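Form 12-C: Joint structure prediction
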Amino acid sequence: MAKLEPYSPTPAARAGRVVMTVTPFVIGIVCVLLSFVPFGRIVGSPLTPAFPLMAIYYWAIVRPEMFPPLAVFGVGVAFDLLSGGEIGLWAFVYTVTYALVVTQRPLVMNAPFSAFWVGFAFTAAFAGALGWVIVSVIHGMLVPPGPVFWHMAVTVAVFPIFAMLFGRFETRVLSGG
Amino acid sequence: MEPNRTALPFREFSHRISLIFMLTLAAALLLLGRAETYVFDQARQVVTDLAAPLLEIASRPVAATRRVIERTDEYAYVFDENERLRAENARLLEWKEEALRLQARIARYEALLNVQVDQSIEYVSGRVVSDSGGPFIDTVLVNVGREKGARSGLAVIDSDGLVGRIVSTGPKASRVLLLTDLNSRIPVVVEPAQYKAILAGDNTSWPRLEYLPVQSAVSAGDRVVTSGDGGLIPAGLPIGLVIQTSSGELRVQTFSDRGRLDFVRVLQYEFPSEVKLQDPPSVLEGAEAESGADTSSAAGDGPRAAAE
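Section 2 - Result
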């Protein structure tokens, strides 16, 4: 009986695996940085979409194995450190939202894009409401819900553009051909 | 194929365990973040300083695009604008005359009252390189750090008025708490009646006026400036105009446009805690000496007159 050789990946395969593992997380970090670029200044509005939420939702549905909970947590902490707000707020909101999306994944996995988008609208509403509740509890008062509502509304509105970009990236780079 | 079949449930299981672990960690961080602020402040400054140069590069095309749009707008209205500016210029020239007259009068009064004149406040110019990034806070990063003399508490203004104050600094970048943030409290004065109040941000675009005296007669359109109370922010910096909401609440429409922040100045203001007594100017000394001589002679006349 022939003895089975232990599998040893070539350096190229190893490098490929590292790229595959790291890329979604890097996209998440880029999304965090994008959130702080003052795009709203172009039109004179302080509204900026929640870019990391789009990345988290997209990868949680499409490739959850490539965007593990650790990456979600890392993206959230990076956002918290860069923003002047409560430490752990977005790390918590994003991780809970990710857990919710992963459990509801079969609902939108093979559905048309409209269902994927509606799913994101619910996700954004959940994340916004959770963040609002936490901040209200921390400050001991009902903070105005207007800013978070508009923040999430803009996020849902621009989601198709980013979903398309993530999709292109996924098919071109991560699918391997 | 065989190993994959056994690996899949294990992978799902480990994914689930990892998710639970991260959820717990995130909750712990949220609670811990309230207590261990020093550690997180340090981490925050490091991350901010690392990200500031990247954000500065990223914000340049944004600023350029905005300028192109503004320029296009300006071309569209250039004739109307020119007409309006001519009228405004004529009106401002009248005001300039009035201002010069009043300035001379104020200088005379200050000299009479022996007022310690404010030293001119030095400033460092910088650019806003980041947006707040979230709906629950209103802070921006400016590319002026400790190396250029920024420190916590300094007021930040733009060409329109007060923008906010610095709350943390790294070597290369600082975080500015805007007037509209939930945590912002600025002592102000409502002109012209000089009612003191606190300008309190609440994450909306229009901060509230709090602690106004009950009998105060503040109305929409009144100007709001910094009071200088507390010694952190210099007095008299323009902030905005009072507006009244439909529910009757008094709020402030700030002069600085939060959506268009670009170039700002960090005022290096030092509260004059050790005020030296100024000698009166020589002009007044002469006048005082004369009047002093007059009074003494008058006083001297008194008894003589009485004796006579």
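Section 3 - Comments
The helical segments of chain A are 11-36, 40-43, 51-62, 69-82, 89-103, 105-108, 113-139, 146-174. Chain A has one domain: 46-174.
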